[in-house]
Amino acid sequence: MSRPTDRLPRLLALVPYLLARPGIPIEEAAADFGVSPAQLRKDLELLWMCGLPGYGPGDLIDLSFEGDTVTVTFDAGMRRPLRLTAAEATALLVALRALADTPGVTDTAAVQRALAKVEAAVGQAQPAGVVVGLSVRDSEATARVREAARDALAHGRALHIRYYTASRDEITDRTVDPMRLLLVEGRSYLEAWCRSAEGVRLFRLDRVDDVRVLDEPAAPPPGAEPTDVSEGLFRPAPGQRTAQLVLAPDVRWVAEYYPVEEATELPGGRLRIRMRYADSSWMVRLLLGLGGEVVVEEPAELAEQVHAQAVEALRRADHLAAR
Amino acid sequence: MSTARAERLVNLVLCLLSTRQYLTAERIRSIVPGYADAPSDDAFFRMFERDKAELRDLGIPLETGRNSVFDPVEGYRIARRDYELGEIDLEPDEAAAVALAVRLWESPELTGAAHGALLKLRAAGVDVDQTAPAAVEPKVRTPEPAFGPLLAAVQRGRVVTFDYRRPSPAELRTRTVEPWGVVSWQGRWYLVGHDRDRRGTRCFRLSRIVGEVRAASQDGAVQRPRDVDLLEIVTRTGDEPPPPARARLWVADGRAQGLRRRARVVSRQAMAGEPGDVVEIELRYPDSAASWIAGFGPDVLVLEPDVLAKMVRERLLGAVTAAERLGRPAPADGPADDRGGEAP
């Protein structure tokens, strides 16, 4: 987690950090800085060699160790941390403002107070140039689902949900053990251990058709890890296939809407993409809807399925018209 | 960074913080441990230049000046009031808000900066527990390659040019923009600024920027108008949704669950021997509704309105033509393989 270039900022922050926490266990300090206790001890040994000009016994930073704890006894004038850089202030203040402006995510009053205090300490009231709007436009039904999920999380209860799985066009009843609510890319999700799938799943709240808080306690198994969303919600997995498609200009939105592995510009504003998909029935539905604006180059059986479904649909529509 | 260099830099900071006088490079060389190791004047100055750059990169306010007009060269010091973070004390619920804010970013540009801020707040004595769970975890990603260069341009006040593709009418052209800010709204990033060619305020989706973002001015050339509300500019461009229109569809038994969950069954009806339901549904956007319905293939038929039936038919015909242009495919054998995972 820690890169070599992180060392100087850490060294400069360590003395004030320890000053504020006399007798702190080294392990706890190491965890706060995201380094191993061994690395933290190396940092402390280095600081012990630093101090004020003269560099005699009374000029050097002095630390006293007792058991596995440490206390600063002379700080050599390094009493406060360095002020935040513009980038640090921006990252923190933009995130706080986003939380403050979004009701329903967290206690906005506490965020407002934190924001005012951080702004005052940082001395930067106008972080330039980045704004995050988090609010989602949920229907009433989705808002009810969210309330139930929040209730279940707060009281540690399991949930019964009726859920629409878009990839398989299937509605299933499940019992889940809620872990957290996530707000990612403008949508709300419930992350939960799904007892029927025996795995951690993200459930889009607007696809939950029915929800009931159960009396039984939520019990996600100890190995249930939160989903890493840093690379997006749809991640490569075994069993997925890849389609190669050519999109006409009118349907280039596909490449913006779904994660795409490769995109190559073609003449006439067309775009060749390679796109992973978990379920071919889902892909066939997408492609049928795109009609003549997409060409399926690979795999051949996908093109065949789309063709067969379209022919069959037209046959049935003709039957309707002939009646 | 080597231990020797880290030690030298910490000593340099402590030395410059403790002095009111400006210290010349020569003086620093004689005082601060580590510089005496430099084998020549040249080696020392290279070392010292690198160290100054490192301190400035970290945001340490290195002042230069002379103690008197008779001093032949400039010296250095660090003003404590500019160096030190102001006093801050957070209540537990405020610290929890800060923790959630730090966790918001899933972004190479912003995650590291947020952690840097957290480190300094902790060093200021604030206790922030990053493991305490929150009711809702918002996460914001910045996957577009244009994000980093645009953020830098906004913060440095630089005019930018880039190639931008508009989907309809489809066009690719170079834009020159005075950037005011980058805005995330409903999971998408936008650039807001003054479009020099169109002479007006414009929003650009970052995902539609093609290729490199190039700087087209010096730093500080862009003046963002005062009191401009960037988020408002992005959100007001969304049109009001059109009123819903009712459609009647036939749906095969047990099929098209995604459509059924939004529809109301009004009667039973068989179609070419296939049992099914007649349903009513409210649809707002005819184009996307037609694509959605066409996606269900033979499982859904449009009974009315005719215009919707025609739009669906167009898509199906298009799909047949597109497939046949590639060479007439053999009919698919067997049902669709269904071993996919669960895409959220």
UniProtKB/TrEMBL annotation, chain A:
Residues 242-314 form the WCX domain. InterPro entries: CBASS_pafABC_assoc_protein, PafC-like, PafC_HTH, WCX_dom, WYL_dom. PROSITE patterns: WYL. Residues 147-213 form the WYL domain. Residues 6-119 form the PafC HTH domain. This is Protein pafC. It comes from the Bacteria. PANTHER family: PROTEIN PAFC, PTHR34580. It holds the Pfam family WYL.
Automatic annotation (TrEMBL), chain B:
Residues 244-318 form the WCX domain. Residues 323-344 are annotated as: Disordered. It comes from the Bacteria. Residues 146-209 form the WYL domain. InterPro entries: CBASS_pafABC_assoc_protein, WCX_dom, WYL_dom. Pfam families: WCX, WYL. This is WYL domain-containing protein.
